[in-house]
Amino acid sequence: MDNEEDFEEEKDKNEIFLNNLNSTLYIKRDYDMKDFDYEWLDIIEDTLPYIDNILRNPKRFIINEEEIVKVELARRVTVESVIHLTQHTNLIQKIEDNGDVKPSKILNINREESLDTYENRFIFTLINNLRTFYENRLEATSGNSYCVDKNMMKYEANTKIDNENIKVSIDINDVSRNMKESSGSKGSMSLGDRLKKVKVQLDGFVGSELYQTLSRLHVSPVRSPIRKTNVILKNPNFKKAEELWNYIQSFVSKDKKEKDKRNFFDKGLLKTEYDQAFLLTFIANKNLISTVTGTSETNMINQMMVRLIDNLLDTDEELTEDKLKVMFEKQADIIKEKNKKKARSVSRILDDRLDREINSIKEMLELLGNGVD
User: Fold this and answer.
1) Residue 294 region, left (φ>0) first, then alpha (ψ -120 to 50), else beta?
2) Structural domain boundaries of the chain?
3) Which residues on adjacent β-strands are paired with residue 67?
4) Within 13 A of 198's CA, how many CA atoms are on the CB side?
5) pTM to 2 decimals?
């Protein structure tokens, strides 16, 4: 009976402890996460060899430039020149007695190869777009993916019970850094090496004959949608180039960026949990000290159990006695099983150590026996 009265008295004191409690929980969080997606780099690397094939063997077409020139300035007389002369007799200066025709002027045709085709202008524009796209992505990613999570918490509390003033102060600084150094790597090549290689290839494309020629001609850029010419439809190099064009045109970044920077005083569940922890720590310390004077250890355990059950009931209003019993029994079984495993592990370690010691002693005895002989 005395134990029950002591228990109730301690319970009342615990309520006084909480009623007189003045506490603050300050939390500071600085979270910064960047997770870059490098699918675009994979696609560019896969397509560059096809563009290189096109630039090494560019498609050309013949341009015929026609002009009427004096006979002595004509480079050569072609079938087209003769046909043109028969159609324009006014250019005939004289017909000799033997039938030879002497023209005053004649049609001259200059044939030249040109790179100014639609397909080549498509590649020229693609290279320009690709360089711009590359620079934009390089600026957007600007390094490896990373995650930095800094959390600082400070709990301060004081209370009074009887003539005793109790204070506590807890500082926790948790900094988690996760630098994804392998992000963007491929095989033995780091992200930086891959980006440099692509840059070198793009610079090489700019120096190609096709690009330089069309740049000097100031050709108009090609715009979407791309015309489905036979070359673009059937040539495997141009088909891959068109796939890259479409990818760049419809590109949507898959990069993930998150920031969370907050400083605040918590007044919710977390602060309540720390208040309860403060009380439980006070009860434990008080009873550990009181053990010397004979205070029952069972009383301490009962008080802590009451606080624990009160917290559970506050968290879940639908928690019944049966549910609570099942929870405790389940956890008790888990703890018992863990203790059994620990005991078995310790036993194995001791047996192993004992076997080694026995073997060592046997070896020493064998050595001594050999010495005696």
Assistant:
1) left
2) 1-59+116-319, 61-114, 321-373
3) 108
4) 25
5) 0.54
